[in-house]
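User: Sequence recovery, please. Input:
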């Protein structure tokens, strides 16, 4: 590469294009591609379970119990009003069952947090593991 320092005739237009800024841009792009290519080719290896066509799908429906707490603090187990010691016994029975049932908890939007907390604490104390909240979409607004 030669650098033109000037000529005797400064009024004549320069016939060569200055390629130095283009080379700088190309080098920056090349470095960016070199940096980002290893990130794009990174793969996480997972051992997924294989589908066994000989194994029939499970035919038993899971048992689901519904626990509700209304705005007055009343606890319901599958639609029947119960008190906290009774629901604790139900949690103990569910936790010790051969196949643990799912327990869906649906507190009312205006339910007292203290009552819901006592129900959750009773479930945890009794060892219930299959538990989830349902109806959370009511609290989105």
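Assistant: Recovered sequence (141 residues):
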């Amino acid at each position: 590469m030669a650098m033109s320092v000037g000529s005797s005739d400064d009024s004549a237009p320069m016939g060569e294009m200055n390629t130095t800024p283009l080379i700088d841009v190309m080098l920056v792009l090349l470095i960016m591609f070199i940096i980002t290519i290893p990130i794009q080719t990174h793969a996480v290896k997972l051992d997924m379970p294989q589908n066994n066509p000989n194994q029939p799908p499970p035919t038993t429906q899971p048992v689901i119990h519904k626990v509700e707490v209304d705005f007055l603090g009343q606890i319901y187990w599958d639609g029947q009003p119960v008190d906290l010691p009774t629901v604790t016994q139900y949690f103990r029975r569910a936790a010790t069952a051969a196949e643990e049932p799912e327990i869906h908890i649906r507190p009312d939007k205006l339910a007292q947090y203290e009552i819901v907390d006592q129900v959750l604490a009773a479930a945890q104390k009794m060892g219930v593991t299959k538990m989830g909240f349902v109806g959370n979409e009511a609290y989105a607004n």
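The mean pLDDT is 83.
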